Amino acid sequence: MPIIELQNVSKEYGKIKVLQDISLIFDKGEFVSVVGHSGAGKSTIIKLLTCEEKPSTGRIIVAGRDITQLKPSELPYYRRKIGVIYQDFKLLPQKDVYENVAYALEVCDYPSHDIKKRVVKVLELVGLSHRINNYPNELSGGERQRVAIARALIHNPKILIADEPTGNLDPVNTWEIMELLYRINRSGTLVILTTHNKTVVDRLKKRVVLMKGGRVVSDEKSGTYVI
Questions:
Q1: Domain-wise residue ranges, the chain
Q2: Higher pLDDT among residues 225 and 216, named by residue
Q3: What's the predicted TM-score (pTM) here?
Q4: pLDDT digits (tens, 9 = 90+) for 38-50
Q5: CA angle at residue 35 from 136 to 150, to 5 degrees?
Q6: What residues does 4 pair with on adjacent strands?
Q7: Is 128 exposed, middle or buried (0-12, 13-18, 19+ CB in 10 A)?
């Protein structure tokens, strides 16, 4: 059974068609790169999956439920089921590494002993145990992205969305982050990656969905980024 299914999804802003009749299926444990030039519709798909936007037409089924029908009160719970990583990290500058990751649990009223256990475990996973008391401005770009990944993983999501996660990183940090995402994927997590980085996509040798003009123009199970 697919974990995510987009059924004939379109998105319009006035007369501008951003997505046109998109149908995609993502299965548990897949690693999928969604590629295309700026304006192709990649970011819009992310916004639809995180319920920042609703489609103009079509259905989006996640874990058997149509998320386009979620009530506002249900959105926070739904979003905790999905890990999201952004290009600009979105860390809280006044909080240290531990506090940035713990905050995602504190707002859900987890008990403090459970928070500590989870945060320590996930920081070990991303290789940042030695940075637990540092602030974002004391970290490298790659380390800040690792904190963002730790925060995205704190609820043990079955779906991890990485929206241009290496866009601000140098080649060395890019590959460290990609290897981390790949390791997370091997544990059974569905990873959906949006990227402009042809080298990354070609090296992964995983499924590639190519978008142009708001449409899916190819979907290869083991593909490369054909520009």
A1: 91-156
A2: 216
A3: 0.92
A4: 889 999 999 999 9
A5: 25
A6: 26, 62
A7: buried
